[in-house]
Amino acid sequence: MEFLKIFGKKQTSSSVAKDRLKLLLIHDRANCSSEILEMLKSDIIQVISNYMEIDKEGLDIQISQARSEESNAVVPVLYANIPIKNMRKASNS
Questions:
Q1: Which of 27, 36, 2 minimizes the C-alpha distance to 16?
Q2: What does the alpha-carbon distance between residue 84 and residue 65 come to, in Å, rounded to a whole number?
Q3: What span, in angstroms and rounded, lies between the C-alpha atoms of 76 and 68?
Q4: Which residues have CB under 8 Å from 87's CB, separation 6+?
Q5: How many C-beta neighbours within 10 Å does residue 21 have?
Q6: Do the Cβ atoms of 51 and 33 come closer than 8 Å?
Q7: Over the stretch 31-89, which tens digit does the pLDDT of each residue have?
Q8: pLDDT at position 29
């Protein structure tokens, strides 16, 4: 899977299977394809990396469902746990 290459570590077949299962569960719960989730992760990493150095190994992004406080309806929710190593210095352009 493409997003696994982002993290730069070699994965065992059991961890790859576990990741695939997670993606399937996410797809079922939030009606989000694995391709969309991979693109979302890649975009989030790219944008945040412009402003700070992040720990890609510890990155955890999930889409699930939760009840809306406003309407009490079930809505998709994006959870992102992104460990920050260091802030980048602002460049004076």
A1: 2
A2: 26
A3: 9
A4: 51, 52, 53
A5: 10
A6: no
A7: 667 787 788 888 888 999 889 999 888 888 877 778 888 888 887 788 888 999 998 87
A8: 60
